[in-house]
Structure formats: C-alpha cells, structure tokens
C-alpha cells in the first residue's frame, strides 16, 4: 500500500529526516513513535505530498508522490497535527466543502458527510461554528474530514492530542475499526496508544528509524527476565532467603522505600507464583500483594531513544 | 473546473458570513454614493442656472459631469480597499494550517489560485452591482446618460479591480501575516498607480540606458539609442493611466489587454510561489 524508500529532507544544513525507508501493507495500522522533533510530522508531510522530499521516493498504491501527486492525494486522508479547520464555517458545510474538493461525486456528498459525522460522533455539533467548538470536538471534526472520502491510506498526526481520556478511548476504537479496509499510519508520543491500537511500530529518533517491529516483539526485545513484586505484612528476618530458595526464583532483593516489599527475579520460562503464595501462607507472612512485572514496551522505547539499545 | 468553483464559492461564502463583505461594500457604497450625489446636485444646479442659455446647456453633459467623476472615485476607493479584501486569501490559509488541507487534497495549486481569485472577484462584482443603482437613479431624475459609455466605464472599473485583486493575491501568497499582506499590497498598488508621475521628466530613452550599462556596446552593435523613453515605459505600466480612456467611455483593446495581462502574470507568479513552498 505504502512504500517509502530512502526519504531524506534537509532544511539548509539541518537534516530532519534521514534515509527513512519502510512499507505498510493494506489493512495494517502502523504506529510512528518518537520524541518531539524526531521527524514524524515531516515524514508524514512528505507522504501526503505537502512537502517535497530532498531525496528518496514515497509511493502510495504504486503512485509516486512526486510524479503523480493527484493520484496519491485521491487515495489519502490526512489529519495534520493542528486540525485544518476553517474557524468561521459551520461543521456540516465545512465537511461538504472538503468532500467536494476531495472529489467525492456530487450525489454522494450528503451520504458521505452523514456517515463521517456519525462515525466521529459530531452529530450534536453539526450546525455549530467550528471556531466555537471545544478542542476535543475540533479534533473529531478534523478526523471526520480525513475519513470522508473513504481513503485507502489514512495518515493521522497525533490524533489524540488534547482529548480527555474518554474521548481518547473513543478515537482509538474508531481508529481500530478502520483496520482491515483502510491502512492507517498514526504518529504519537504516547506509548500505550501504540500498544493498544497498532499492529506494528516504527520508532523514529533524530530523523532515522531506530527500530521497526511488531509491538509484541519490540516489547520483548532486550530479553530482561520477568519479575514478581511482592508485598508482605509481616516478613520475618529470613523471608528474603526463604523466597530465594523457591524453585524458579533466581534472586530476591528488598525494595527500597516500602516496608515488606520485595522484588523477585524469575528464572527463564518459569512461573513460581503459586509456590511463593503457599510459602507465604505457610510461614504466616501475610501476603498483601503479588504482581507479575513484565518488561514493558516503554523500557524498550526509552533504551532505543537513549541509544543504548541492544 | 468544478474544484475551482467549489473553492471560489467557499471563499465568497466566507466573505459574506463575516462582517468583511458588508463593511467593505457599505463603505464603498457610502463614499461612491456621496460623490455621486454631490456631483449630481452640482450638475442639476448648473442645469437650473444655465439651462436657458443655449451655449451653456450644450456644454452640460451628465456623462462628463456625474458618471466620470464617479468612476474616478471608485478607482481610488478600490486602491484603498482591495488590499483588505485580498490580505487573508492565502496568508490566513497558511497561518490557520488549512493550507495543509488544500494541498493534500487532489487539487492543483493552479486551481487553488484561480478559485481564490474568483471568490474575491465575486465580492468585487457584488460591490459594483450595488452601484448600478446610480445610473438608474440618474434616469429616474429625468436626465438620460448615454448607456454605452457608462457600461464601458463599468468594464474599466471591473478590469482595474481584477488587476488589483490579482496583485493583492500574489502578495498574500508570500506571507503568513495578514497585516503585512495588506500593507505591502497597498504599497504595491499605490506605487503602480503613481509610477507614471515620472513620465514627463524621464526623457532618456530605454536604449540609451542600456547603452550606458553595456559601456557603449549597444550603440556599436548598431541597435541605436532611439525608441521609447523610460517615462513612456513607466506610464504604460501605470494602473491608472490605462483607466482614463475607460472613464471617458472609450473602449480600447490595448487597455483591456493590459489589465488582463496584469491579472494573468500575477496569478501565474502566485501559482509559482505556492509550488515553491513545497521545496522550502
């Protein structure tokens, strides 16, 4: 669906995007991750044809953005970081305008606008002035604008910025519902967003692709052992040593700060939680909490961004 | 074609849903109406005083004394107002981020430029259409102005207005700041308005200037130092000089071609400016 190869963008002496190459298959949701200023927005702008790349090519459905920009633009829906709204227009006329310049056939304009309004939940505000809407509603109108013409490729630049938690959840559900029929690229610097919505993630740092893989594999990268966090009401003196003797536990150390808190590293491929629980009951330690800690996506991300990745 | 119409229509709607169209049209009608009324009153007074004198009454002409000053006034008001009409066309689009929408839609930059230009032209035509009541009022007063020269005058005002719009649009494409767009457009229009003031004193010919710059090579090449003077060149670049014949009711194709060329050139450069944005 989308093929980006060797895309580079320089502003004067500053290289914002450096030799970025990746491809996205039809129906996939790809997450673009990276700190602010990493080149996410510029890469997206190059794919949409808003900015021309200094080198490299981007192809959407086989059409080169430089050579056949109109063919590409027909196939994409784009929500920039700041939703591109005419503040002095009403919601519905605005969406109708976008539908028309996006080339939706005249007879279908009404139906498509209705559908987009319905999907993005802006029916209540359809007759209001865009400039008077809250940030959350403006973001939704921006999203409605991007999906109006049922694009093959949907490009969303930080779609959940400025929304409250329940709105974020709705938007995520909406994005997930696009998978399959549409291909989606979304950029974000919120990690859970990628874990929750994306199939694959691309971590960009300083204009380069630092990592690209499925979310699960990225999270598993580095291979640190799993741990169990324990909290005991009345740990005796020998609690740490006794825990360490449980089969499957590699090492135990008391956690700083909280009384009775321990962190047990687990041996590869073993799950001794049941044994730990029985031991705690048998010794009368008063087990308050036991929690499995897996290495999170966030750890991988931080390592990659800091540059000390494996 | 349809895309251009959609963009133009949205632009015109924006003018008419904001106070701008009404403020601009209102002030335009107020000023031109006042001038019209003043010259009409003066004309009827002269008619009353000298109407019985056969020599004077043959000199009294409603076209010369009422319609012509009216078009002159309209030209000056356009000079002041058109920068306000054009300032937001592209500058606002860039500042609000909606340019990112327009240029990621299957729309060429040429279509955007034409759409914007036509949208502003709709407002211009509306403003002029309101003033069509003036000739009707003259007819109601019993005097009969010649309709053809009046219509030619309107054509002149319209063409000049379109040329102003195109220049304003060009300047709006170069900045994100509306105030800057308005000030620079006003300066450019005023400059092109007064540029022929030099025509009397700049009597050196263009060929002579080129001769000086080329250290005499021009003359040695047998190209001569005759031909048009710099002053003549400047006066033919003046936006107002080409308007004078229209005011008199003379329809001369050279003036029509001049205004259309200004429109075409400005729109063309605007399109190039928009295209170049992608590479910066």
Task: Write out key terms for the chains shown.
heterodimer, A: 310 residues, alpha/beta, Rossmann fold, Alpha-Beta Plaits, 2 domains, 6-stranded mixed β-sheet, 4-stranded antiparallel β-sheet, 34% helix, 28% strand, elongated, B: 280 residues, mainly alpha, 0% strand, flat
Number of strands of chain A: 14
* Contiguous uncertain segments of 5+ residues of chain A: none
Structural class of chain A: alpha/beta
Q: CATH homologous superfamily name of the largest domain in chain A?
A: P-loop containing nucleotide triphosphate hydrolases
State which percent range the strand residues of chain B make up. under 5%
Give the helix level of chain B as a range of percent.
over 70%
CATH topology of the largest domain in chain A: Rossmann fold
Strand order of the largest sheet of chain A: 6-7-8-3-9-10
State mean pLDDT of chain A (0 to 100 scale).
85
Low-pLDDT stretches of chain B: none
What can you see in these coordinates?
The complex is a heterodimer of chains A (310) and B (280). Chain A has 310 residues and is α/β, with parallel strands linked by helices. Chain A has 2 domains: 2-220, P-loop containing nucleotide triphosphate hydrolases (Rossmann fold); 227-294, VP9 protein domain (Alpha-Beta Plaits, 2-Layer Sandwich), CATH 3.30.70. Chain A is 34% helix and 28% strand. Chain A has 11 helices and 14 strands. In chain A, the strands form 3 sheets. Chain A has a 6-stranded mixed beta sheet, with helices on both faces. In chain A, helix 3 crosses helix 4 and helix 4 (109-120) packs across helix 5 (135-147). Chain B has 280 residues and is an all-alpha fold. Chain B has one domain (2-199, 238-277). Chain B is 77% helix and 0% strand. Chain B contains 15 helices and no strands. Chain B has helices spanning 2-17, 19-50, 54-59, 62-86, 88-95, 99-102, 109-131, 133-140, 147-172, 178-194, 206-213, 217-220, 230-237, 244-248, 253-277. The longest helix of chain B is centred in the N-terminal third of the chain and has 32 residues, at 19-50. Chain B is flat and about 70 Å long. The chains are: A alpha/beta (310), B mainly alpha (280). The interface between A and B is medium-sized, with 30 and 25 residues.
């Amino acid at each position: 669906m989308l093929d980006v190869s060797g895309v580079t963008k320089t502003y004067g002496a500053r290289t914002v995007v450096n030799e970025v190459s990746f491809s996205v298959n039809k129906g996939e949701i790809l997450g673009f991750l990276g700190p602010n200023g990493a080149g996410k927005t510029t890469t997206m702008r190059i794919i949409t044809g808003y900015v021309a790349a200094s080198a490299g090519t981007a192809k959407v459905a086989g059409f080169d953005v430089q050579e056949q920009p109109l063919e590409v633009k027909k196939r994409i829906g784009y929500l920039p970081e700041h939703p591109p709204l005419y503040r002095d227009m009403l919601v519905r006329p605005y969406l109708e305008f976008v539908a028309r310049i996006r080339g939706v056939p005249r007879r279908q304009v009404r139906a498509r606008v209705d559908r987009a309004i319905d999907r993005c939940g802006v029916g209540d505000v359809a007759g209001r002035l865009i400039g008077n809407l809250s940030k959350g509603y403006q973001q939704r109108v921006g999203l409605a604008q991007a999906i109006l013409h049922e694009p093959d490729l949907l490009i969303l630049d930080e779609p959940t910025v400025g929304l409250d938690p329940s709105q974020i959840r709705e938007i995520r559900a909406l994005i997930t519902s696009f998978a399959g029929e549409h291909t989606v690229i979304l950029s974000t610097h919120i990690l859970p967003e990628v874990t929750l919505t994306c199939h694959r993630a691309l971590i960009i740092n300083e204009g380069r692709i630092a990592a690209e893989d499925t979310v699960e594999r990225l999270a598993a990268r580095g291979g640190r052992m799993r741990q169990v966090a324990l909290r005991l009401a009345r740990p005796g003196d020998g609690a740490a040593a006794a825990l360490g003797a449980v089969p499957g536990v590699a090492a135990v150390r008391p956690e700083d700060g909280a009384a009775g808190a321990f962190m047990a590293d687990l041996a590869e491929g073993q799950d001794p939680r049941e044994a730990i629980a029985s031991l705690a009951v048998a010794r009368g330690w008063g087990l308050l909490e036991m929690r499995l800690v897996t290495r999170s996506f966030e750890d991988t991300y931080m390592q990659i961004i800091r540059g000390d990745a494996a | 074609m349809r895309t251009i119409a959609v963009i133009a229509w949205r632009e015109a709607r924006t003018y008419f849903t904001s106070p701008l169209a009404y403020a601009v049209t209102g002030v335009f009608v107020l000023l031109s109406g006042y001038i019209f009324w003043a010259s009409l009153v003066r004309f009827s007074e002269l008619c009353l005083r000298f109407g019985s004198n056969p020599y004077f009454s043959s000199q009294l002409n409603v076209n010369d004394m009422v319609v012509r000053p009216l078009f002159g006034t309209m030209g000056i008001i356009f000079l002041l107002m058109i920068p306000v009409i054009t300032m937001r066309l592209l500058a606002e689009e860039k500042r609000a981020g909606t340019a990112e929408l327009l240029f990621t839609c299957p729309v060429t930059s040429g279509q955007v430029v034409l759409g914007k230009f036509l949208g502003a032209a709709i407002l211009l035509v509306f403003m002029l259409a309101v003033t069509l009541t003036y000739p009707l009022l003259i007819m109601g007063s019993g005097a009969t102005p010649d309709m053809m020269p009046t219509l030619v005058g309107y054509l002149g005002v319209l063409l000049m207005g379109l040329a102003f719009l195109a220049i304003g649009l060009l300047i709006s494409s170069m900045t994100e700041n509306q105030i800057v767009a308005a000030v620079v457009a006003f300066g450019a229009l005023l400059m092109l308005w007064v540029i022929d003031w030099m025509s009397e004193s700049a009597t050196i010919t263009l060929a002579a200037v080129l001769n000086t710059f080329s250290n005499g090579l021009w003359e040695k090449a047998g190209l001569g130092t005759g031909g048009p003077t710099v002053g003549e060149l400047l006066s033919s670049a003046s936006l107002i000089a080409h308007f004078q014949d229209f005011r008199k009711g003379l329809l001369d194709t050279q003036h029509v071609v001049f205004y259309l060329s200004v429109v075409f050139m400005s729109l063309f450069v605007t399109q190039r400016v928009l295209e170049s944005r992608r590479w910066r």
